[in-house]
Amino acid sequence: MAAAKSSRLPELPTESLTLGNSLRVRLVPLTHLQSATVSFFVRLGSRYETPRTNGLSHFLEHMLYRGTAAHPAANELNLAIERLGGTLDAATHVDFTSYFLSLPPETIAKGIELLAEVLQQPLLTELRTEKQIIREEILEDLNEEGEQINVDNVSRRLLYPDHPLGFTILGPLDNLDGFKTEDLRRHHSAHYNACNSVLCVTGAFDAGEIEQTIRSSFDGMPHGSTIEPCRAPGDSASQRFSYVQEHGSQTDVRLSFHTPGVASSEAPALLLLERVLDDGLSTRVHQTVCEERGLAYEAFSGNDSLEDCGVFDFGASVEHGKAPYLVETMFELIDELRRNPPTDEEVDKAKRRYLWDLRTVRDDPEDAAHFIGSSALLGLPERVGTVADRVAQVTPQNIQHVAQRYLDPKDAYLTCVGVLDEALLSDLRGLART
Fold this sequence. Notes:
alpha+beta; Cytochrome Bc1 Complex, Chain A, domain 1; 2 domains; 6-stranded mixed sheet; 5-stranded mixed sheet; 16 helices; 42% helix
């Protein structure tokens, strides 16, 4: 098939360095671009927390913006970044935290110095204001009784009871209220170290001109040690159905299955399974749920994959009374793929679209940074060609096999957030059991 010709993909020109403190550095000069990105990836997120510290990683990410020794006020720090023409964004995920400082090429050296300052010299003071901001963020996912109503958060709690993978990234309000400066410093010291992190620079720059800046800015980061996450539990949860009542016009539905992680040999087949089901308006989920049956405005499926585990979700928001019919439809989609492999045409299109996505990482320094930086952090292949070749080798039968192995209806978890009467609840519980 034409999509298998992945050798035609242009490779990212990556130079790898390791500083004396063991910090891994990736330099990816893309001279055709007009901007550059300095990014930092650290093993820190909700899966590295305990019930008492849940939410601390996200709080710490916010607090790094609130000032450093050289720029002691949040506004002063933001002004220094913006004077460089820069924008600093950060995100806390389940298994890592990332920082992206996008800049004009002429200010990249100053940007590297400033990001090093943010990461290594945070003041971690004036907690009250940031707590108020995060409190509002947490409240978006709670109802008036303080109950979690974000369907994805409820779903993960169902799949991973009593395990950090079932925690929310934001954590509970009580934890936020109790966090102190010493908690932040302890968390920062344990995780923000050279062995636990990757620095990546992508875009329009000259590697030779910035290497010394990187060394002088980051050589002082403590060596530390790599923090290993809690091992993912097996599929042993006793409950398969979760319902939260939340008044509104629709019910949010998630049908979920445990899958292996991105390091698994089956990850490429799961990636294409996801794209066969949901990668554009012509694919199965949208066509069946939306176009043929008119059940939802939009519907999706996808594999949320970590290092050692993942979750394959089907989801949509529908009128309350349609929830059982939606779940039945999702099971029908699964059953069809378990009985018959996808067509060659479907798989070829899925490969073409994925390979196109791999090609376009060269068009955006943040996309390139995310591909290279997160791969280096998690020990995944950093070459576009390696990833493309693995995907190109997947057959329709491989996709059918992972559907049979991981999308087994008896292993499904069903989560609903909305308004369901007893008859609807009975129908949905029956679907979850059978």
